[in-house]
Amino acid sequence: MPGIVIVGVQWGDEGKGKATDLLGDRTDWVVKFNGGNNAGHTVVIGNEKYALHLLPSGILSPGVNAVIGNGVVVDLEVLFAELEALSARGLDISRLKVSANAHLITQYHRTLDKVSERFLGKRQIGTTGRGIGPAYADKINRVGIRVQDLFDENILRQKVEGALDQKNHLLVKVFNRRSITADEIVDDLLSYAERLRPMVCDTGLLLNDALDAGDVVVFEGGQATMLDVDHGTYPFVTSSSATAGGAATGSGVGPNRLDRIVGIVKAYTTRVGSGPFPTELFDENGDFLRSRGFEFGTTTGRPRRVGWYDAPITRYATRINGITDLVLTKLDILTGLDQIPVCVAYDVDGERFDEVPVNQSDFHHAKPILEYFPGWKQDISTARTFDDLPIEAQDYVLALEEMSGTRISVIGVGPSRDAVIVRHDLVD
């Protein structure tokens, strides 16, 4: 049985949570392998709407085991707030496991994230201010705090004191903020230790055993390809590996265990935060897409930047991730448009680029070369087969498929759990 990776194709918010949920009762495990609570998944089940930030969306499916992998940075306050909220709504949260090697977000990470971003002024990255970047920086600098450190107070205190030696100088002398004591950090972290202890294990071993046993394991990426720290629009990126390769390093399974790579892509494009966005709209079409698609951040509430579908980005993501299947979401949001533009290439100072330019400066100055497709007026939210779609919608999907370099296996036609058209099974 397969290991299935789900990754975002664009700049996030494509609907990865719904794609994970779509696999539903055929999934045994869902693993979050990167990021922290800087991204959100919104899943609609019946009349209930769930907004998850740190937890894998599989925790909403009965009988599914949810795992927070070693590649995630964990804010314990957020983790337990989410768990308590789900428990209060009657959901079973007992199946969650957390990697002993996952790194923790502390108070000083959140503080540094906020003051550093303000300090950048016009050069701001557009972070969520939740401490994600500073926590990953500490991980790479080898001064991070891991989940397992909570269970040895002496080690925990030594690591916190070592981290604060430098950070307090930065906070006080550069940012004019108060210093932070080791006691307040240690006491805060230890307050979660006993509640966390039953969830903590060697999740890499757990997942490899599950794959050996023939279980279906879904690896759910946070953020998306164009926010990947290596392959995205650097420096306007997240601090982790959001592409399919990150599923292996962020969960402790080998890349040969990953059988299917599913890319989630909107029928148009959005992003949050700063950075280049060639198809961005600033007119009534942008307002139409934002309002119809309710394009506001699940985590931050910030209005998302919106634009037309970008085919070169999808081809790039297909190549970088080795995508085998695309899930095209929010096709219904385009209903009512007379014509639908698609970016097929870029113009950079008079030169045509059919692929994403390798030079960031070129991409920043890229202007979209558009091809136009007829729109449709019919409500498509009740379509459940491809033939149920208006011919114009069918033609649009087929054109995107041809441009994208891989097949479109699933089409989302509405926000509800069953508002999908399945052209190719994601598991078999």
From TrEMBL:
Location relative to the cell: Cytoplasm
Name listed for the protein in its UniProt record: Adenylosuccinate synthetase
Chain residues that bind Mg(2+): 13, 40
Binding site residues for GTP: 12-18, 40-42, 304, 330-332, 412-414
Recorded superkingdom: Bacteria
Family: Belongs to the adenylosuccinate synthetase family.
Annotated pathway: Purine metabolism; AMP biosynthesis via de novo pathway; AMP from IMP: step 1/2
EC code: 6.3.4.4
Chief localization: cytoplasm
Cofactor note: Binds 1 Mg(2+) ion per subunit.
InterPro entries, alphabetized: Adenylosuccin_syn_GTP-bd, Adenylosuccin_syn_Lys_AS, Adenylosuccinate_synth_dom1, Adenylosuccinate_synth_dom2, Adenylosuccinate_synth_dom3, Adenylosuccinate_synthetase, P-loop_NTPase
